């Protein structure tokens, strides 16, 4: 059928040329059958008025493995040496004193270890056996001068400066003890405007006591007088 239509068209063109009619510059159009190809569902775009957001990419959360330190065997439990209810009450009244972080100082020449349990108690232990041998009814930061047989205790105060609270300030102070008999030799208030625990260190050869509070202060180890350096 298609061939017949093509032949008829050519014959008409030839006849027109023989009759003196102009030949068409464009060939006649013939109906071309259109074949439709199946459209996949992915090619269809349907606007339903709904906006779909892409699901966020799920990322795996990698948790670091905990670092497990070997368990340390406690040589001595300091809680056995102090009354828990007393320590809790003193800690509440003295917030600068830590319940579980106890100041300590070693007297290597005498074989003694001083451990401050609370603001009202410092125990003296044998440095080899850790057996309790004595105690002092006072606690705080510690420094030992083994050669001159002196123990220095930085005792914290309590209360607030005048005008800043209801309590009257009892400032911190420094105390010196004879390590041979644990007798108190000297006590002095160095700073009158704070109840904080004095951080101290001793230089036995120079006979100097260093105190930290905002800066470094140098005191005479015998008199606790502030030195003008």
Describe this protein's structure.
With 229 residues, the protein is α+β, with helices and mostly antiparallel strands. 12% of the residues lie in helices and 27% in strands. The protein has two helices and eleven strands. The strands form three sheets. It has a four-stranded antiparallel β-sheet. A hairpin with a 4-residue loop joins strand 9 and strand 10. The N and C termini lie far apart (124 Å).
List the helices and strands and how they pair.
Layout: H1 2-18, H2 84-93, E1 104-107, E2 112-118, E3 121-126, E4 132-136, E5 141-145, E6 150-155, E7 173-178, E8 183-188, E9 199-203, E10 208-213, E11 215-220
Antiparallel strand pairs: 1-2, 2-3, 3-4, 5-6, 6-7, 7-8, 9-10, 10-11
User: Which parts are unreliable, with pLDDT below 50 for 5 consecutive residues or more?
Assistant: 21-25
Shape: elongated
The neighbouring-strand order within the major sheet is: 1-2-3-4
Category by helix and strand content: alpha+beta
Measured between the Cα atoms of the first and last residue, the distance is 124 Å
- Report the strand count: 11
In sequence order, what are the helices and strands, one letter per element?
Answer: HHEEEEEEEEEEE
What is the average per-residue confidence, as pLDDT, rounded to a whole number?
Answer: 74
Proportion of residues in extended strands: 25-35%
Oligomer: single chain
Largest sheet properties: 4 strands, antiparallel
- Using only CA atoms, what is the Rg? 48 Å
Number of helical segments? 2
């Amino acid at each position: 059928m298609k061939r017949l239509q093509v032949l008829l068209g050519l014959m008409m063109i030839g006849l027109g040329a023989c009759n003196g009619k102009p030949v068409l510059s464009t060939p006649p159009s013939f109906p071309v059958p259109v074949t439709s190809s199946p459209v996949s569902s992915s090619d269809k775009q349907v606007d339903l008025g709904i906006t779909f957001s892409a699901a966020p990419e799920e990322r795996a959360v990698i948790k670091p493995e905990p670092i497990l330190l070997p368990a340390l065997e406690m040589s001595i439990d300091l809680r056995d040496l102090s009354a828990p209810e007393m320590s809790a009450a003193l800690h509440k009244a003295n917030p600068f004193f830590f319940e579980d972080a106890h100041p300590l100082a070693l007297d290597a020449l005498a074989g003694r270890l001083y451990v401050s349990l609370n603001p009202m108690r410092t125990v003296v232990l044998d440095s080899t056996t850790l057996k309790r041998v004595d105690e002092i009814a006072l606690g705080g930061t510690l420094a030992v001068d083994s050669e001159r047989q002196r123990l220095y205790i930085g005792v914290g105060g309590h209360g607030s400066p005048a005008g800043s609270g209801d309590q009257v300030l009892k400032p911190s102070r420094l105390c010196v003890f004879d390590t041979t008999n644990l007798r108190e030799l000297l006590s002095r208030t160095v700073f009158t405007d704070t109840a904080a625990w004095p951080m101290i260190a001793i230089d036995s050869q120079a006979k100097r006591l260093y105190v930290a509070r905002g800066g470094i202060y140098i005191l005479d180890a015998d008199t606790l007088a502030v030195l003008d350096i």
